[in-house]
Amino acid sequence: MEVILKKNVDKLGYADELVKVKPGYGRNFLIPQGYAVLATASAKKAHAETMKQRAHKENKLLEAAKEVAAKLESVSITIQTKAGENGKIFGSINTVQLAEALKKVGFDIDRKSLKIKDEPIKEVGTYEAEANLHKGVRPTFKFEVVGE
Q1: Which domains does the chain have, with CATH numbers?
Q2: What gap in Å lies between CA 105 and CA 100, rounded to an integer?
Q3: How many other CB atoms are there within 10 angstroms of residue 72's CB atom?
Q4: If 92 and its partner were Cys, which of 8, 14, 108, 120 is the partner (CB 3.0–4.6 Å)?
Q5: pLDDT by 10s per residue, the chain, length 148
Q6: C-alpha dist (Å) from residue 44 to 5, 30, 48
Q7: Strand 140-147 relative to strand 77-81, pairing
Q8: Angle at 101 between CA 96 and CA 104, to 5 degrees
Q9: Which helix (H) or strand (E) holds 140?
Q10: What is the rounded distance in angstroms from the CA atom of residue 124 to the CA atom of residue 128?
Q11: CA-CA distances (angstroms) from residue 64 to 9, 50, 70, 123?
Q12: How far apart are CA 49 and CA 142, in angstroms?
């Protein structure tokens, strides 16, 4: 029996995959729980069209992410914070402050997709961070922490 998965199922497959399962498993568990639909001819045709449209949208998103990554690597970002005389910061710099600094420069990147390489940052200096923009697009950029 062939089914089209609607959700990820452990040890079976990912969403939108066409898989073969035993009839009892498909009829009694996957379909009633909403994990899959029966792969009839019309369902296969609709699934193929959906996948084609999704691939087209994915390509557009990937191209946009690559453009943002190229711009991000060439931008200089400065974060100002209160610091002592010896260069120690009061508190630390995290992804929230980094996301705000990026927003000031013109990049609207969610803080959850940012990763600072040498966390926690407790001193002024130059550091690196990575932004997860899309699957496979992870530009690394530098930012500078300066005291006020």
Answers
A1: 2-64 (3.40.5.10), 68-147 (3.10.430.100)
A2: 9
A3: 19
A4: 120
A5: 999 999 988 889 888 899 999 999 999 999 999 999 999 999 999 999 999 998 888 889 889 888 988 888 888 889 988 888 888 888 888 889 899 999 988 888 888 888 998 878 888 899 999 888 887 888 888 999 988 8
A6: 11, 17, 6
A7: parallel
A8: 130
A9: strand 140-147
A10: 13
A11: 31, 21, 10, 34
A12: 42
How far is Cα 90 from Cα 38, in angstroms, rounded to an integer? 60
Copy the structure tokens of residue 119.
């966390």
Sign of CA dihedral 91, 95, 96, 99: positive
Q: Which of 55, 42, 59, 53 is nearest to 4 (CA)?
A: 42
In this structure, the chain runs to a length of: 148
Instruction: Look at the block and give the residue holding tokens 């630390």.
Output: 92
Angle at 76 between CA 88 and CA 99, to 5 degrees: 70
pLDDT of the residue at 20: 96
Task: Give the DSSP H or E segment for 59.
Answer: helix 41-73
Q: Which two tokens stand for residue 65?
A: 């992410």
Structure tokens, 89: 């910061």
